[in-house]
Amino acid sequence: MRFAPLGALAALAATAQPDQDASRPIGDTASAPAEMQAPVPGLPLPLGTAGLAEPEAADEVSDDDIETFAEIYVALERVARRYERAIAEADSEREAQEIQTRLQTDSLAILERHGWTPEKFNRVARILNARPDLAADALRRIDEER
Questions:
Q1: Closest by alpha carbon to 5, among 72, 69, 52?
Q2: What is the pLDDT of residues 58-105, one digit of tens each?
Q3: Is residue 83, in this structure, part of any structural domain at all?
Q4: Which contiguous run of DSSP H or E holds residue 40?
């Protein structure tokens, strides 16, 4: 499993069908605000996404960081699922965009409640993507959080 950009969360909710496999790459996230372009739990990196899985020079993550990442991951999954149906049932593109904006706001609030920024989430996700041993630990913790 790879951890993908936070902007992908909004795209997932906008494009996911109830039976969609969450491990499949999702649509374009270019329309997401810049602060949402950070890795997100549970969403695969799009193929050919250069540099997102590269390790940061001399960066490490603590056990606390991995635990917090897992908590955020599960919370982001829950909020995305909550908005998926509303976006799919929106009567207009404008209504869908308004719902998507609320999803983004709620996603940023989750990070803030944990004292994290999208940049920190991005950094931890890149490290986890580059370190299979740490990724396995994060996935175990994510499963426990669920």
A1: 52
A2: 468 999 999 999 999 999 999 999 899 899 999 999 999 999 999 999
A3: yes
A4: strand 39-40
Nearest to 121 by CA among 7, 1, 24, 28: 7
- Fill in the DSSP letter of residue 39: E
| Measured distance CA(99)–CA(88) in Å, rounded | 10
At 4 the three-state DSSP class reads strand
- Find how far residue 69's CA is from the centre of its chain: 10
Residue 87 falls inside a structural domain: yes
To which residue do tokens 């909020």 refer? Answer: 79
Q: In terms of pTM, does the model score above 0.90? A: no
Domain that holds residue 111: 4-34+61-145
- Distance between CA 81 and CA 9 in Å, rounded? 10
Cα 113 to Cα 80, 106, 116: the distances in Å are: 17, 10, 7
